[in-house]
Design a protein that fits this description.
Membrane topology: Multi-pass membrane protein
Family: Belongs to the binding-protein-dependent transport system permease family.
CATH topology of the largest domain: MetI-like fold
Structural class: mainly alpha
InterPro entries: MetI-like (IPR000515), MetI-like_sf (IPR035906)
GO cellular component, one term: plasma membrane
Number of helices: 14
Number of strands: 3
Helix content: 55-70%
Shape: globular
Strand order of the largest sheet: 1-3-2
Distance between the termini: 34 Å
Order of helices and strands: HHEHEEHHHHHHHHHHH
Radius of gyration: 27 Å
Subcellular location: Cell membrane
Length: about 350
Amino acid sequence: MAKNNMSKLAKREEKLAYRLLLPTVLILVLIALYPLGSVFYTSFTDKTFAGADKETQFIGLENYKELLSITIKELPPILDENGKQKIDPKTNEPMYERAIRILPREPRRYKELNQFTLFGKRYVIGATDPNFISAIWNTLVFTVISVALETVLGLAIALVVNSNFKGRGIMRTVMLVPWAVITVVSAKMWEGMLQPNRIGFFNTVLDKLGIGNGQIAFLTTEGLQLPSIIAVDVWKTTPFMALLILAGLQLIPDTLYEAAEIDGASKLRQFFTITLPMLKPTIAVALVFRTLDALRVFDVFQVLLSSRKYSMATYNYFQLIGNRNMGLASAIGVIIFIFISIFAVIYIRMLGVDTDER
């Protein structure tokens, strides 16, 4: 009898819990799921942004095909009258047919993305939208390198400020200053420091050290653009990672370290056997949050590089505002969402974070 009463009480409590959660679920549907579903639907249309002159048509996967279609074609060598491959007198390199003549134009026009040589043959990679493929590459490189650096540096800073030393409170406050600065403001600050002459801080310092000529164009030289953007982001966001990891360190009981010291474990062994395993859930959360931000990075790219080099988010902005192509922009948004989901799952699997074990 008592068992039945407990069972009825549990069921009533369960129903009450569902009723209490219902408003939260409805709000979540309105502010999150509905907009997400709307973006998914729009990505299958040719909808125009801020325009009523064109009727929206359902076009299926055409936007995704336009963004992601890639082809690889072999470039035939240019031969002379003797049947030998011509050599460019300026570069002293073998000459090949122009990519524009080889890449298909129907049913979609492919443009040159890159070229490479394999087993003595020359190939061209063509894409229907090479700017977006480049934007994906730029975003992934930016994400992987910046998040890795920020995690390592953030862990190091968190370990330092978690130890006992004089002025620890001031250090914890000071380390948050870069993160507290608005991203656009910090990007503008770095833009001034990266000026391609001796007005820029870095050119001045490098010139004093005898490196370069004081005219290094950090933001216009192809090979220096991404490293410059990554440096700006690492400076600003490392304190955020340090703060999250520091919170995880505060949850590790001191008794574990005391027991390890009694057993004769060194500081390095304590780090790998106690600190890192206990920090796995915290690091997983930090990586997910930071990767989410990095994959949809907009402000740093837009302020410092504008249209010289796109991230996925800045190219999304270009298509939506510049070309008013809302359908294509929505498809880019969906692709960003998919990338974020993939990274989140990878982190959780790799770090072994399982809610059933906690």
